TrEMBL record:
Superkingdom of origin: Bacteria
Keyword Ligase: no
Location within or outside the cell: Cell inner membrane
Any one Gene Ontology molecular-function term assigned to this protein's record: ATP binding
Domain ABC transporter: 2-246
Pfam families assigned: ABC_tran
Record-given protein name: Phosphonate ABC transporter ATP-binding protein
Record membrane topology: Peripheral membrane protein
Name of the gene this protein is made from: phnC
UniProt keyword annotations, A-Z: ATP-binding, Cell membrane, Membrane, Nucleotide-binding, Translocase, Transport
Amino acid sequence: MLTLSGVGKRYPTGDRALSDIELSLPKGQVLALIGPSGAGKSTLIRCVNRLVEPSEGRIALEGCELTRLSGAKLRQARRAMGMIFQEYALVDRLSVMENVLSGQLGYVGFWRSFLRRYPAPAVAEAFRLLERVGLSHAIDKRADALSGGQRQRVGIARALLQNPRLLLVDEPTASLDPKTSRQIMRLIRELCAERELAAIINIHDVALAQQFADRIVGLRAGRIVFDGKPQALTAEILTTIYGEEEWDTRVADEADETPTTTPASLTLGVAT
Ligand SMILES: Nc1ncnc2c1ncn2[C@@H]1O[C@H](COP(=O)(O)OP(=O)(O)OP(=O)(O)O)[C@@H](O)[C@H]1O
Ligand SMILES: [Mg+2]
């Protein structure tokens, strides 16, 4: 449903962030994008919804070439893509409900949303979504009164309100504790299954990526260096992606055990 062919990005500063990206994402697939800081993960996600303009290559969503669109057509295409950010991007002084409804901006027009008049079906759907993400008790709370995990749930509900077919998720768990991180990843995973949504999730936590994604793509210096199933990610491949690091001994040392052998999923302590 999403295809990137020959996509590259060079920023005006001269930094080359992506080179020759070939990626095809089928409907309903949850893809985790991993790689060291600066590898180009955020750039790739932003090229897809054209928050960043790719320097070369083509990106097509359900047969529609995004890289050729502009103006109203681009805005319309963007509605098929829900964005979820690490920093939650909520308006602090607005309520949970209003934050979710603000995801409708593209639909209801600037003035209606400025006056906070939303169509009844959107409000009903926002209620349903808030219930689904476990926030029905907090609908009237101000966004700044929420915990990090709750804020992320609001971000998820808001992204889903526009009924997207693709989710673009940039480090959803970066500032959450390990348990909340798992809950958020599980929620995203379940919602993708329920709604047949495809997702690209940038994530630093390799164990979480392995546990919750169907497929893992490893980026290094703007190039894809691994594309495969979570089980196929060995310590050797992690070294290719992240550079030299003694994955086995390092993780085992922390656990105060004698080093075990690959696969990395075991040494990284992932429940399989
Ligand atoms: N707006 C920008 N202008 C110039 N260079 C940029 C810009 N955004 C990113 N870059 C550069 O592009 C490269 C890729 O950055 P990007 O933010 O995509 O990496 P990332 O994999 O998301 O990293 P992180 O894990 O730290 O979020 C880096 O070298 C970065 O310095
Ligand atoms: Mg990033």
